[in-house]
User: Fold these one by one.
Assistant:
Number 1:
Amino acid sequence: MYEQKWSKAKKQHKNNLLIKIFGLIDKRVGKRTLARIRDTMQMESELIQYFYRLRCEAEGIK
């Protein structure tokens, strides 16, 4: 479900970093979803990658 929302948010707000960051730090996004979107993070900006790594670290995901 989050992957669909993530894809939709990426399409609608390609350049809006704040929306992507808020999506990553939203507590409703679970560990499995974070693990699933790992590959797409390589195509994101360094700022988005930073918040992704920060969230994964907080959740204990390697």
Number 2:
Amino acid sequence: MIRVLIAEDVRILREALVTLLGYEEDLEVVAALETGDAIVPAALAHRPDVAVLDIDLPALDGLTAAAELHDRLPDCRVLILTALGRPGNLRRGVEAHVSGFMLKDARPQELVAAIRDVAAGRRIVDQQLAYAALRLPDSPLTDREADVLRLTGAGAAPRDIARDLHLSYGTVRNYLASAVTKLNARTRQDAIRIATEAGWL
């Protein structure tokens, strides 16, 4: 029996997944969650073989939860099931040690087969997404530019970033301006969006 944990914040989809997997004799849903921060505690309590996670979850995104799950319960394999088919998310998924990456427009039986494959130790990746990720260029940002952009995206003010990174306020502003220019962005928020979607943050 393959024990499955599901994390999906849209209730109708979460319940549909539970029902779908319930029809399979070799699959058992041991937890169905709506927030990302509940994933690791539930996994430690129920010891699933496979965690099927959405990326865009309240409280904690699915990729961050996947990385924590790998550290705390490495025997649990993660299959990302998302509508966010961005190459950058695939890169983040690889860094988080996920075993599979599927889009939500997959057919139900493809998902069932993917869960079985992931449980057996195989890797599953949507082909179009994999190709797009291979074509994605390397980040043009320096490590410091990425750090400053990431902290800005998390809501930190330039003065706070300067203090935390032991930089001058002017240096932080220069890093932000440089990042905006390199990414051909209109604003800082646009630069954060571009870099995040590309998996550079």
Number 3:
Amino acid sequence: MILADFAKALGQVGDPRFRRVMWWGVGLTLALLVAAYAGVLQLATMADPGSVSLPVIGEVTWIGDLLTWGSAAMMLFFSVFLMIPVASAITSMFLDDVAQAVEDRHYPHLPPLGRQSLWDAFRDTVNFLGVLIGANLLAILAYVILPFAAPLIFYGLNGFLLGREYFTVAAMRREGRAGADAMRKANLPQIWMAGVLMALPLTVPLMNLFIPILGAATFTHLYHRLAGTALDPRG
């Protein structure tokens, strides 16, 4: 059923409104990653000693090039992990638009809703990012103690957090915070699994650029399926 939700989200990529939001999300994701790389590159430039004289070898002038290429390789590696918090930020910014596009096509019988305020979206984003970053920092200890289980811990933890965030934001539009929390607790295994299935492609370079928006659409379908509102035959 979760894969069916994702298939519906993927099938709406051709919708002009959905596609516009997707490209905005991809552009913002790239901008955030480029900004992060610019910061790392600046630190590498500041650490460049210019040239160093070594015994036997003599003067070495390629340390700056090594730091530059090393920073690029490091950012490519860390972008795998950066995409998890980036995805959470993009969800809060674009979920209203994505969910509305999904509902207009698949659930047109539902009454229209007002938009979430920018302040509420910002507050929720900051709160979740704090939880996400804190949990992953604490998980580093588990990675060190259980290195062979590190992938399971990473995907299990971030799948739980992403599923919790995406479903709560999607459900809050129609259920309110208390109703969304109740639905999430009642359907935790399915929501957790959906979060894990989202976390997996988020660690695949290039593919992960499109996952935040597709994830928002998928969790919108998941919410409506669990809420029993998919009455339209096209849903």
Number 4:
Amino acid sequence: MIGYVTVGTNDMEKSAKFYDALLAELGAKRQMEGDTFIAWGGGGPGLGIIKPYDGKAATVGNGTMVALACDKPETVDRVYNKAIELGAKDEGAAGPRGDSGFYAGYFRDPDGNKLNVFCMG
């Protein structure tokens, strides 16, 4: 159902470096880019960074989160650890959540956008 999501950035270079390395862990590559945006994809929904159209500073949406699907807990661990290595802020270490088989790790990118990586076991 979701085609792509974008997160705002105030530093294209820093954000692009973060997402190039992070999304490579999931097999995604840059698909499109312009002066104010870059989009990555890997066969499913895409993720992009963008400078806001109105020219104002990008801000973080309270309660907004992008969830990146993984195939297994080991992939969640690898991608979560890569995010932290790249300077992301921990928002909940990778591990099981409840007893439903949901396994996830939560973090904030360099601009403060909240993401998670997850799989269903």
